[in-house]
Amino acid sequence: xxxxxxxxxxxxxxxxxxxxxxxxxxxxxxxxxxxxxxxxxxxxxxxxxxxxxxxxxxxxxxxxxxxxxxxxxxxxxxxxxxxxxxxxxxxxxxxxxxxxxxxxxxxxxxxxxxxxxxxxxxxxxxxxxxxxxxxxxxxxxxxxxxxxxxxxxxxxxxxxxxxxxxxxxxxxxxxxxxxxxxxxxxxxxxxxxxxxxxxxxxxxxxxxxxxxxxxxxxxxxxxxxx
Length: 226
Hints:
The chain is an alpha+beta fold. The protein is 20% helix and 35% strand. The radius of gyration is 31 Å and the shape is elongated.
């Protein structure tokens, strides 16, 4: 499976001052925990190396092998991280251990591609979510899930069951949920409404024609007595 290896060292000193020294030397404090660790591991990893992992196509869904000095390798994923609001440098990260043979649940980006036919007529493509929760083995986590909207006309959409995903990946949403729709502009809806009303004077809004349409045929009235 695809993975990256990060070298880590155990932190023997904890607290603000030791952590500040780590950051000055190009490292950041981290913690690793989960199945396979007797207790949380206080570690330090290279700032730029971890930043590179988070900036890769899979980002925080990347499986990382932590090579801990004088210990062993741990298969982990980034559970959480903090960034300095001004410098945008990483300040801290949490790793969670993963079982490479057990499915897990993660969120992956959902992206639409192409320009729909409905957009050409003035419609707008609406997407209900930009991230999809999926279940799969760590090795099968997709970088993203895409949907081609080119063929969609006005008021047409895409349901979850119509999405194409890699083998072994399950989307954790109802199969009939519509997550993409090409919404018609108001002018289009008004025009469609007028077309439906034209055939029925009572629906067109003309009270005189509506009354006339409701009156019985004069020929059907009984003759007046002579």
